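Long-time lurker. I teach an intro course on protein structure, and each term I like to show students one example going from raw sequence to a predicted 3D structure in token notation. This year I'd like something fresh instead of my usual example. Would anyone be willing to generate the tokens for the chain below so I can use it in lecture? Attribution to the forum is fine with me.
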Amino acid sequence: MAAFVGAVKLFISLVLWLNTLSSTQGARDFYEFRYPFIKRASSFSSSSSFSSSSNDEVRYDYIIVGGGTAGCPLAATLSQNFSVLMLERGGVPFSNANVSFLRNFHIALADTSPTSASQPFVSTDGVINARARVLGGGTCINAGFYTRANSDFLRRVGWDARLVNESYPWVEKQVVHQPKLAPWQDAFKDSLLDVGVSPYNGFTYDHIYGTKVGGTIFDRFGRRHTAAELLASANPKMLTVLVYAPVQKVLFDKSAGKRPKAMGVMFKDENGNQHQAFLTNNRRSEVILSCGAIGTPQLLMLSGIGPKAELQRLNISMVLHNEFVGKGMADNPMNSVFVPMTRSVEQSLIQTVGITKMGVYVEASSGFGQSQDSIHCHHGLLSAEIGQLSTVPPKQRTRQAIEEFIKRKRDLPREAFKGGFILEKIAMPLSTGHLNLINTNIDNNPSVTFNYFGHPRDLRRCVNGIRMAAKVIQSDRFTNFTKCDKPTVEKLLNMSVKANINLIPKHTNDTKSLEQFCKDTVITIWHYHGGCLVGKVVDPNHKVLGTRRLRIVDGSTFSESPGTNPQGTVLMMGRYMGVKILRRRLGKAAGV
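-- Reply from a regular --
Happy to contribute to a lecture. Here you go:
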């Protein structure tokens, strides 16, 4: 018996010892075993594999720039039949606890270190925002909600319905889960139905008018499953993924009298050393940009494709003039109404959504997972005053505005971390803006303007959305849950203005005028899109107009954000476009 007890103690000690090992090392061992094709950029050699030239220089059938939400499923699909090199500017998500766990959602966004999975930026509108900088892209830093696009979107973009309906399940089977509904979300669901957002459509991925529970990329243990996991479906012998490999420009053959032909890319590794990677000589080989709505138009311009004046301003050698690169930038404006609680509430991100017929989506979040030490460092978005105010236009960068911003965070009531928010978001905003280069450094953010509420219809919709959110909070179902007196609209708005974090100066009539409240408290839920629109920058097959062997597969081609939340459709898009490319090139022999 003593020997048995001793053996058990030894086993427990061994388990505890293993658990105390570096989580980073453990995760690294795991991903190197499951994804042996993921390597650091400094390991790149132009003579390692996939040789197709007489001098033994490596060439690839496809070079994908950006290992994000669309890039990962695209690479996994194309690698079934062809050699693929995918270049990702960030690191891997597997060893990052702030990425992997729901409880750390807010901390991941607040991490402004150079190697963070989240790169903050502030639009010229004064709204604090973020873009992903990690393998898996936005699926590593978002709120996890998964839904399919509305049928009208799919009809407008002209995608093949049958292939779409094959591509969504390919994603869903690998990374999507049915959520366990949190108490806050359950009360929110009942309240939506009480105020007329009906019928109740239950749990579904489909975009249907009424109230529904959507999918999530968080499993029942609160672990996030990102687009990077779709790489497990790749052919490991045909795929190379380089991390910490920011691409600086696409390389072109600009022979006289011919359209510019993409030949490869120039990138740097984590040590700052320059590399070049090239396509095979096959006319169907392609460089495919999947850098997202911020990164793709930025990289196109840095590569010499964009408005002539913009390129000349920074002495960029022009490959092709296209005035529409960087135009049509849009973000779905979101406003939040704070709901106080006298007790702690379970953390939940987006699980339930109300899809209204007035052009507004209503969602909810609750609780915060961060430690007591970090509570006042940020408010679920970003700490803009640490290093990011340099990107804000001088007219909005006043000392008073900065001090008031910091004070609002410091003075946030403790109750803010015990309650939650009802969120309203404008569907298909008509307001659009633009993206411009600040300098020629790919690591730096460009200047982005979304022009929130520039169109009066967007503002009218926001007002209706705020009224809807207030009705939800005032409903008997919700007040029974919160155990608080039914608040007046003015009280709700007053608390919400104090809890809101952006760099837009506030006005004294914020709580009197719903229009002013919308303008002053607008924030983002990271659904920005545009900059390389179909018909303007790319053709219907997403090939860049006026060029050869260059394509774009990401949300920069969208003129609207699909459904209530775009990640499901962007994931599907990567698979869809990959299959479409293979079938056009190989026919039935593609096998997909």
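Some talking points for your students: The two ends are 58 Å apart (CA to CA). The chain is about 30% helix and 20% strand.
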